[in-house]
């Protein structure tokens, strides 16, 4: 029935700050940016390795969504990486704090968490 996941949509509180974070800090490629005047809203299409994956939206006066303690809803967005230690080091150099790297007790794989400008939980997962 399903072919795959097409994209993840994120609504941010500060569009320019989040655009910079996802494109400049995390290195996602900008495919398209559209300003929708009737909604006073931006939509930014982002890709990893040329694969469309994230839509970043701005909406005026969007309500905050609680993250901690764990709230119902989407828990986090995970990015697969080749070298978690190198990626953590790169993020830390760019001023993005990360949690300590842990080992998934079920898979034996390394992972850690960090946050975007709106405190959305993001994960790095070395597969």
Automatic annotation (TrEMBL):
Pfam family, one: Glyoxalase
Keywords in alphabetical order: Metal-binding
One MF term in the entry's GO annotations: metal ion binding
Boundaries of every VOC domain copy: 4-127
Cross-referenced Gene3D superfamilies: 2,3-Dihydroxybiphenyl 1,2-Dioxygenase, domain 1
Keyword Metal-binding among UniProt keywords: yes
Presence of the UniProt keyword Acetylation in the record: no
Parts forming coiled coils: none
UniProt xrefs under PANTHER family: FOSFOMYCIN RESISTANCE PROTEIN FOSX, LYASE, PUTATIVE-RELATED-RELATED
Protein name listed in UniProt: Glyoxalase/bleomycin resistance protein/dioxygenase
Organism placement in taxonomy: Bacteria, Pseudomonadati, Bacteroidota, Flavobacteriia, Flavobacteriales
């Amino acid at each position: 029935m399903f072919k795959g996941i097409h994209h993840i949509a994120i609504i941010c509180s500060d569009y320019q700050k989040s655009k910079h974070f996802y494109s400049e800090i995390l290195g996602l490629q900008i495919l398209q940016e559209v300003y929708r005047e009737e909604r006073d809203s931006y939509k930014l299409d982002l890709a990893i390795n040329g694969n469309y994956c994230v839509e970043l939206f701005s909406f005026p006066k969007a309500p905050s969504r609680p993250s901690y303690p764990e709230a119902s809803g989407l828990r986090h967005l995970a990015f697969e990486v080749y070298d978690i230690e190198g990626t953590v080091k790169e993020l830390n150099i760019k001023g993005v704090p990360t949690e300590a790297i842990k080992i998934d007790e079920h898979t034996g794989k390394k992972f850690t968490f960090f946050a975007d400008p709106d405190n959305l939980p993001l994960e790095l997962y070395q597969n």
